[in-house]
Design a protein that fits this description.
By secondary structure, the chain is of the alpha/beta class. The chain has 13 helices and nine strands. Helix 2 runs parallel beside helix 4.
């Protein structure tokens, strides 16, 4: 019962937390952190220019709620912060993505082809799904190239989306990029869960729904203690959006029923 009540509060009753996000941007700047995108940090890392200065890499996964994503972007523009935004097929907004790129931040793909294929093909066993990996990788490549063409900008990093189907399968979407030839054809320099990237951070923090909010600890508590931090956020964890949330929850119920 408590879980249901927490979910209802998070989805529909929680006051906006965007003022806390803005306060975090200010606090990080006051502590001397360079606040940057995954793409920019990767280039710095590979160029041997990482240095010892504190860095906070901002990664936003746009699962839902483009309106809040735009507000977060506006706050970052206000404070001179760069970040990475990863969009699902269901949340693509090419005007916003171009604005993000024109500002100097990063807009790219939040992919989920393994989960999508499993649900569409009614496959509930990971071994069965893996028999179709060539087809799944083909779908990913077509989607990737279509987004890139519409966006008019080369995407060099991508981020795997975690769907309820992945949890039931025990199989992550990231697995489809365990293919160096596919990465080379698409020009993908890094996946956001690659060991090369994750091992460059002292601390990786992800936002969580109410009442936890962050795991393993709030970023405010990490500033000044950890030198290299990656912060993963989702717009829906910072501001309620009844329409988008209801649409997303209904879609998930229908997908689960059909699967």
């Amino acid at each position: 019962m408590r879980t249901v009540l927490n979910r209802l509060y998070s989805d529909y009753l929680m006051p906006s937390r965007l003022r806390h996000y803005e306060a975090l941007l200010r606090q990080a700047r006051q502590h001397g952190y360079r606040q940057t995108s995954v793409r920019a940090w990767l280039a710095t890392l590979r160029g041997g220019r990482a240095g010892d200065g504190p860095v906070l890499v901002h990664r936003h996964d746009i699962d839902t709620d483009l309106a809040t994503a735009r507000r977060m972007f506006a706050l970052e523009q206000k404070h001179g912060v760069r970040a990475s935004y990863y969009f699902r097929l269901s949340t693509l907004d090419f005007d916003l993505m171009r604005d993000i790129e024109d500002y100097g931040s990063e807009a790219s793909y939040h992919y989920e082809e393994i989960a999508t294929y499993a649900k569409q093909a009614h496959l509930k066993d990971a071994a069965q799904v893996r028999l179709h990996m060539d087809e799944i990788r083909g779908q990913f490549e077509r989607n990737f190239r279509h987004i890139e063409q519409r966006l008019g900008i080369k995407m060099v990093t991508v981020a795997s989306h975690g769907d309820f189907a992945n949890r039931r399968l025990g199989m992550i979407n990231h697995e489809l990029l365990d293919d160096t030839a596919l990465r080379a054809r698409c020009g993908i320099a890094c996946e956001s869960y690659d060991d090369e990237l994750l091992s460059s951070f002292d601390l990786y923090i992800s936002d969580r729904p109410h009442p936890e909010y962050f795991h393993p600890l709030p970023p405010q508590a990490a500033l000044g203690t950890h030198r290299r931090i990656c912060l993963l956020t989702h717009p829906s964890q910072w501001r309620t959006n009844w329409t988008d949330t209801s649409r997303h929850n209904l879609r998930r119920l229908v997908e689960a029923w059909r699967w």
